[in-house]
């Protein structure tokens, strides 16, 4: 199965504004784990690699939140990140800030 179809088939989501007891597990509820891991590159870059790349960029949280929702290609290679339509604006900002906080 092509990666984009596979990722679309895995798309899951919880209602916007859902409370999460452990922010470190929140990314797993939004399909991020299909392509990303915290400490190692898989189909996509590791979250720690993303955090390191944007460590000095003050607007990175908003930019990454938008990329989560809209998808993208070219920053980390030729494999596209499909749009994550199941992720709300609020959730994408929570995810991007969590990613950027990883050391």
Find the count of extended strands (DSSP E, 2+ residues). Answer: 0
CATH architecture grouping: Orthogonal Bundle
Order of helices and strands: HHHHH
Structural class by SSE content: mainly alpha
Low-pLDDT stretches are 1-21
CATH third-level topology: Cytochrome Bc1 Complex, Chain D, domain 2
Number of helices: 5
* Main CATH class: Mainly Alpha
List the domain count as a whole number. 1
Please give the alpha-carbon distance between the first and last residues: 34 Å
What is the 3D shape?
globular
Q: Helix fraction?
A: 40-55%
Portion of residues in beta strands equals under 5%
CA-atom Rg in angstroms: 13 Å
Task: Report the biggest beta sheet as strand number plus sense, adding barrel if it closes.
Answer: none
Specify the CATH homologous superfamily.
Answer: Cytochrome c-like domain
How much is the average pLDDT? Answer: 80
Pick out its properties.
single chain; mainly alpha; Cytochrome Bc1 Complex, Chain D, domain 2; 5 helices; 44% helix; 0% strand; globular
Describe the protein's architecture and organization.
The protein has 103 residues and is mainly α. It has a single domain (3-10, 22-100), classed as Orthogonal Bundle (Cytochrome Bc1 Complex, Chain D, domain 2). 44% of the residues lie in helices and 0% in strands. The protein contains 5 helices and no strands. It has helices at 3-10, 23-29, 47-53, 60-70, 89-100. Helix 4 packs across helix 5. The N and C termini lie far apart (34 Å). The relative contact order is 0.20. The model is unreliable at 1-21 (pLDDT under 50).
